[in-house]
Amino acid sequence: DTEVTQTPKHLVMGMTNKKSLKCEQHMGHRAMYWYKQKAKKPPELMFVYSYEKLSINESVPSRFSPECPNSSLLNLHLHALQPEDSALYLCASSQGWLGNQPQHFGDGTRLSIL
Amino acid sequence: AQTVTQSQPEMSVQEAETVTLSCTYDTSESNYYLFWYKQPPSRQMILVIRQEAYKQQNATENRFSVNFQKAAKSFSLKISDSQLGDTAMYFCAFMNYNAGNMLTFGGGTRLMVKP
Question: Is the CB of B41 inside 8 Å of chain A's CB atoms?
């Protein structure tokens, strides 16, 4: 069983829809991450939150909007996505942002844009 | 910047046999960590094993062990007594100790364990 829970597991949406992906962890971790993964490729880092503050934005288009309401929860708000945004979106968390802090991943949300 | 290279896109092994997955990396840093992650069809990225660069002793976790050659910048993963459940995508990853908790992934190796 994964300790990082992502919902929904699958999402199909049109290009004009607004939806949100949710990630939750109860391990007391203070760093949380969003990754995008295309088929047969490694994950690509999108955002990093440390102590509920956005630390890194890897030049992600503004149609992706992250939010960290508290230390256990991370959201990714989606709006006006493009077909090329179809991918697996992985959330991860780690104890902290510095040093040797292994990342624990969720099962991901498979997103399809029509 | 660092790069991680996995030269074997796909591999296969018979059940109960041993297989070695290759990983090389390029960095000018001296303090770093290396990881192997497994991603089965269920999609979750699972940490298999990690190695601190300052440790000379190779890490082991049950049937999984690494051969860490710091001078050669090589970090291979050996899976002994392969099981069907080992079928997955395997990613080698690098973390610079001084640059936060960011992972640089290799391109991955797809491993198929055959009965």
Answer: no
